[in-house]
Write a structure and sequence with these properties.
Number of helices: 22
Oligomer: single chain
Radius of gyration: 27 Å
Largest sheet: 9 strands, mixed
Low-confidence stretches: none
Strand content: 15-25%
Distance between the termini: 61 Å
Length: 663
Amino acid sequence: MDVKPLLYIEIPHPKTQEVLEWLQKSWQPSIGKKTLTQDGLKIELGENSELSIFLWSLQRTTYLKIYRWGKKLSSKENKIKKELKKAIYQKFPQNYPQLPDIDLTNQSIFEALKPHYPETVKYFQKMPQGEYDLNRVYWWEKKWRESVENNAENSSNYQVKPVLFKDQSKGKADYDIIYVGGALGAIHAALIAKIGYNVLVIERLKFGRMNREWNISRDEFQVLIDLGLFTKKEFEYCIAAEYKDGFSKFFDANNPDKLKANVLHTPTVLNIALDTNKLLEVCQKKLIKYGADIWDETDFEKATVGKDIVTVKGTHLVTEDEREATGRLLIDAMGTASPIAWQIAGKRTFDSVCPTVGAILEGFDPEVWDKTYGDVLFSHGDISRGRQLIWELFPAERDELTIYLFHYHQVHPDNPGSLLEMYEDFFNILPEYRRCDMDKLVWKKPTFGYIPGRFTVGENDREIATDRVMAIGDAASLQSPLVFTGFGSLVRNLGRLTSLLDKALKNDLLDGESLNRIKAYQSNIAVTWLFSKGMMVPTHKTLPPERVNAMLNTFFGLLADEPDTAEIFIKDRTDWFTFNRLALKAARKNPALLLWIWEMAGTRDIFRWMGSYAKFTFDALKNLLFSRWFNPWLENQSKWLRESNPKLWFKLLTFGSRFVSQK
């Protein structure tokens, strides 16, 4: 008997049994004889033809397929498909999660959130500082939602609570640089303090406490060793684990054979798991050694930019005392929720984000996972409630594992992205990803955050600085659109950024125009943002469930055949020829790819990307023409040029610095 698949859709509803009851009891086809089955129903169309409709649950959502058994009856089949899809989308529309409004006056965060996120509450209660951390998750999501909704490009309620002000104040600053944010900020601050600058670090949390963990490769971390910030011994001290190989594999059961892909092996990509507590401990010792001050548990309130100083005010959260300091320069390292970054950027803030949740845990059986290996990127199902969920798994200290769940997400005021919803998914579907008894696992620490991205056309497309104020790391959102990590981006560009900042400070080039030239922009990274668009389900759109996995398998299948190219691509070292060669190979392998991207990105973003590609091409040409002679020539002209026209000298210096980073 001939069997043919006719329809595959996702029904964005986590309770599959409710969908089944509706399908069997309420929905009636206009033609054919309906008979109930264990997981759906069948419809007899006559003439030796019937349709089998069945449901299943995965990733807290519901999937439906229709198969034809027997003779093809196109008109009847199409009529039933159309009727069923219409009825499903009316009964089970896509609903984007809202943050519950809670009052903690007379109840704990556990009591407040249990009706909404029972599994999340259950497992946070098992963590050593679970109540504190769950409060942080709620606070982080609330801040993110407020920022997105208030700063939306089409928002009639556009408003930014200003935290940057201006006056005419002058005087001798207490510090050369004040850093607000003590994670990525601490690394940058330690290096700047080592050079000899007087530094203050302001951190809202207890210094050294992180919501996220960091992974990197040995050759990438070598930058910090070469700059003299870490010794090899200190680096080894900070390593929690190092794995033999990392895997990337995306679900392909519903992809055609030509779009199924082999496992991509990347043994030297993100293979070093860093103990962030130890890393920040080393940074803290370095800061103290080099004479820096640290104000932890201090909430940033506002900053006032004067003629030659910036005044920063904050509140010590323990004593509630007000604190104030002045500096020549303020560096914003507060990450995605930074009010400074949102104010500087205005309505053009973040285009994309990775809502990321996870935990450090132990208790996996050795036959389930060998901790000498890692999952770099992995999906075990198709689109779930408007998101393509992706896992990461990295070995950590001793028998611990760090496991993340995230998705690439379009920033939209109707659907900002939810950490709490993701955590509820995480705790429900972790056993689907890797077989385990959730109640026997030992839960050590949650890891979570919003990791932002910006679709840039050129280096001047987004401001990351104003007079005497500059953003770095996630606050600047200039990291790789694929790997989405401010840590890796900062480390890769640390030498260049520090050198340029040193020269800006020494020559008092702290105006917004000059500081905006000191950024981690790379055109070979910016051009890949269209790739990340292919991992996002646009808000208010429905895609075939297998679409994102098919796109990922198209590209990662090519990388699996070229391991050396894969490492270059994932570590943001792609050159113009490699990028174009891979793009053409992907188009030949999957001719529908361009149409898919066009559907997901939209015409406006396709044309924006063409600008990115033109800039990438122009930069490749500049590198070819200038890289060999420009920097030696500028070195010979530096003395008189710096004295006669310091801004032009600095502009040429930043121009030449990009040639070094692209070699």
